[in-house]
C-alpha cells in the first residue's frame, strides 16, 4: 500500500500474517516519496516485496497506489506527479518467484484497496462499499471495483473560480478544499491542525472554513448517492480525524432528499495501513487468480 508511505504485509484470506513493514520507517518523513523518481519508488517497493516474500509461498501481489490506474499503468497521480505514465505493474513484474514462476502483480487505486480491505474485514464483500481517504490527496474508493475512473476527490463542489488549490489544477474540486496540501496553501499562516483547533474555539475564519470542508465532502458524497444510490460510506486516511460525522450527516441530509436515496451511513476509520494492505491482496487474488 502506497499512500503517504509504503506499507507491506503478508495476507492470508482477510487477515494479516505477521506485522507490517513500512518505508520510511520514521513517521515524520511523510514527504519521502514526493521527491523520489518513479523508478526509485518502484525499486523501493520491489525491495520491500522481496524481503517480505522470502521463503513464503505467495500466490499474488496486490499494490494500492494513488492515482488513476489502468492496466497497471499510473495514468495520472496529482500528488506524485513524477509517476504519471509509469508502468508500475511492469516494473514490479518478476519481483517475486515461487517454484520458478513469476508471481502475478496487480496495481489498484489506493482508495479502492482501502474499500476492499474494509469490505473484506467486515464481511461486506457482497455489498457496495465506498470510502473517502483524506490525506494530501482525497481518494475515492469503491468495492466491488468497477470499470471507470472514479476520481471522486476531484468532484466539483464549488463554483467560485477562485477555488484553485487542487493539486490537479482543476477549479472548485473537493481536494482543493479538504486536501492537506491545499489547506496549507489556503492558510499560509497556520497548519491544518491549527485551523481545526481554532475553529473549535470559535475563530471565525477557521470555523467558516471547517464548515465549508464538511459541506464539500457532503456535496461529493451526495453526488455519489445521486449516481449510485445510498449505502455505507467510510472515511479514513491521516486527516479523517478532522471530520465531525454528525455535521457531515446533517449536511448530506440537507442535500439528499428523495426518499429512495435515504439511509446512507457514515463511519470514520482511523488511518490504517493494515486495511489497505489486506484490500490490495483481496483485489489481487480476485484479479489474478482463477476463482
Ligand atoms: Zn483536482
Task: Describe this entry's structure for a reader.
This protein has helices at 38-53, 88-92, 110-121, 174-178, 180-186, 192-200, 204-228, 245-255, 273-288; strands at residues 6-12, 15-23, 61-65, 68-70, 73-76, 86-87, 97-98, 101-102, 105-109, 129-134, 138-143, 232-236, 265-268. Helix 3 (110-121) packs across helix 9, helix 6 (192-200) crosses helix 7 (204-228) and helix 7 (204-228) packs across helix 8 (245-255). The chain is built from nine helices and 13 strands. Helices cover 36% and strands 21% of the residues. Strand 12 (232-236), helix 8 (245-255) and strand 13 form a beta-alpha-beta unit. The strands form five sheets. Strands 11-10-12-13 form a four-stranded mixed β-sheet. It has a three-stranded antiparallel β-sheet with strand order 4-5-6. The chain is α/β, with parallel strands linked by helices and 291 residues long. Zinc ion (ZN) binds next to loops.
